[in-house]
Amino acid sequence: MARTVFDKIWDFHCVGQRADGRDLIYIDRHVLHELHAHHAFAQLEKQNRPVHRPNLTFAVQDHTVATKPGRDDATNPSGTAFIKAMREGCRKNGIRLFDIDDPEQGISHVVAPELGIVLPGATHAVPDSHASTVGGVGALAFGCGTSELGHILATQVMALKRPKRMRARLDGRLGAHVSAKDVALRLIAELGVAGARGYTVEYAGSAARAMPIEQRMTLCNLNIEMGGRSGFVAPDDATFAWLKGRPYAPQGAMWDRALAHWRSLASDDGAEFDREVVLDCGTLEPQITWGTDPSQVVGISGCVPEPAAVDASRRAAAESAFAYMGLVPGTPLAGLPVNRVFIGSCTNSRLPDLQVAAAVVRGRRVAEGVFAMVVPGSSSVKREAEAAGLDRVFRDAGFFWGESGCSMCAGGNGDRGEPGERCVSTTNRNFENRQGPKVRTHLASPATAAATAIAGRIADVRQLLAGAA
Amino acid sequence: MQPFKSHTGIAVPLLRDDINTDQIAPILHSRSLKEDYKAMLFMRARQREDGSEDPDFVLNKPQFRTAGILVTGQNFGAGSSRESAVWSMLANDIRVIVAKSFADIYRENCLQNGLLPVVLGAADVDAFTARVVAVNGTAPFTVDLVTQRISGPGGADIAFETAAADRMRLLEGLDDIGLTLKHMDEILSWERRAANAQPWLQETHDNR
């Protein structure tokens, strides 16, 4: 029978069915972070349950670590206890930790693929809703809570209900300065914040195929913002080339054997999906959010919508967003003055994201009164960016250049805006108060964020660059 | 896990869609390994800018301060997977959430902790919500997982459905890890099979 990629991965990893009807899905790679792991370590210790497969488990310090140069455990005082508990839990349980000073420390969703820890066709879990970022290399990932994290530590499986399958076909060729971020925001706008709830999403189509791996990760990262727990792009030659030679990827004869299997990870002709959606990406302009959920999106040349133009079921949410964001319907997004720009997070902090932003920033200055920061997604990304001189480009322009971590995405490390500030951010959630109490967040791509930092106002990167030419 | 059989309590209407876990359990500036989950619940919505209590927020109203059943809209618990968004409900003795729908991870986190997520059909949820609003905290409702019915003032009982598997786990308060550990033989034999079929999955080496 014709099967989708999802079916192939799920069926292979199904260990058995539990008495309550749930499938036990084996987790090949489990990555922990310090914000949630300590609860699970404490719970297992109390129950006297060992970690079943420490060698398939990895850990990072990412949510609470300071980004200030020269940071240590104490730089963010409210993170210190989490960082230390993580270190202790990993030591006791024999888990490889990428600690705060490790040369490969970083955001779990950036570190796991860049080291080749996650692989095509592998299952992956992180106690974080953006786990499916690694769908960009063709892995099937599940974000989870703390109880499930403890469950995986003790058993190496998750007890799951089989989700439905959605294929999102992304057609067309992206225009200049339009990226995966813009595609994902538009898709969320079309499907809504719960549009993929209950589904695993396979991103397909020429636009997805044409995306470099880092962009595919951005695309899959935002899957949860339309309610989907897992999303991926089936692996192809670009994936294999990207992974080959990474430290934890198989090598030699094992690589060849893995590769032969990975080539079978395509949805068969005639395989059935429970839902198919199509997005024409050829005409997309850069996108930006105007509201307080990631589906409240317009093109960069667009305006804050009139209430009448908003679907009736979403109108109350829109009205509440206008008030929180301090925006009047009909106002063009481009031109709104900003106080902050943040480039980073598991969504957009990989080297090509920084390269795109640096290309916009090079030879220019951050507008007066704007605090702009770049936080690389991993210490490896930071090192590579510095080797290429990108840190100079950002610093010379007036950007803060930080140590790697989740930083201002959720502000768990103390990096936050001030009340009332307007912030253009390359992150994934524009929820009220997320980047600091009363902070007004607009989600956009690295190119848009960089252009905005220079202009001091929300800017269309295409116009900024055309103006310079 | 604390078993769930039946819960009687005041039902509080929080009638918005897409309430996310950043709203339910905000990440606070100052935090510790032992958080005050009771205080965390909807902390930003509960407070005015000067830090004083906002009397207009529904959970601060006298009749709803001890509510045990939360009634809400679509896609409750969207966003971050943080389980504190469930623990903060339980710390406030809220044992049932009746919603039009739940975000996937949030629903799972509820089941893991004996917090009953109830989804009612479109007609029932509107009728029930109207009753909850009309009763306005003057009398309790009972949500019974054994009979799968909601009873209370202002109308007939309302039936709801919970997947048999989830219902069993909640009723018996089963230890989820314990349930799975009964399958350890299958897990070990899967590992042996995988070590042959896709050996690169069963090992990890830093090849440098």
Quick synopsis:
The complex is a heterodimer of chains A (469) and B (208). With 469 residues, chain A is an alpha/beta fold.
Q: What attributes characterize this protein structure?
A:
heterodimer; A: 469 residues; alpha/beta; Aconitase, domain 3; 2 domains; 5-stranded parallel sheet; 33% helix; B: 208 residues; Aconitase, domain 4; 4-stranded antiparallel sheet; 4-stranded parallel sheet; 35% helix
Structure description:
- The complex is a heterodimer of chains A (469) and B (208).
- Chain A is built from 16 helices and 19 strands.
- With 469 residues, chain A is an alpha/beta fold.
- Chain A has two domains: 14-163, Aconitase, domain 3 (2-Layer Sandwich); 287-468, Aconitase, domain 3 (2-Layer Sandwich), CATH 3.30.499.
- A five-stranded parallel beta sheet of chain A has the order 5-4-3-6-7, sandwiched between helices. A five-stranded parallel beta sheet of chain A has the order 17-16-15-18-19, with helices on one face.
- In chain A, strand 3, helix 2 and strand 4 (57-60) form a beta-alpha-beta unit.
- In chain A, helix 12 (351-361) runs parallel beside helix 15 (446-455).
- The longest helix of chain A has 14 residues, at 34-47.
- The radius of gyration of chain A is 21 Å and the shape is globular.
- The mean pLDDT of chain A is 97.
- Chain B is of the alpha/beta class and 208 residues long.
- Chain B has two domains: 6-174, Aconitase, domain 4, CATH 3.20.19; 175-208, no CATH class.
- Chain B has helices at residues 21-24, 37-40, 43-46, 84-91, 104-113, 122-135, 164-172, 176-181, 184-197; strands spanning 6-9, 11-14, 69-72, 96-99, 116-119, 141-144, 149-151, 158-159.
- In chain B, the strands form two sheets. In chain B, strands 1-6-7-8 form a four-stranded antiparallel beta sheet, with no helix packed on it. Chain B has a four-stranded parallel beta sheet with strand order 2-3-4-5.
- Chain B is globular.
- Classes of the chains: A alpha/beta (469), B alpha/beta (208).
- Chains A and B meet through helix 2, helix 3, helix 5 and helix 10 of A and helix 5, helix 7, helix 8 and helix 9 of B.
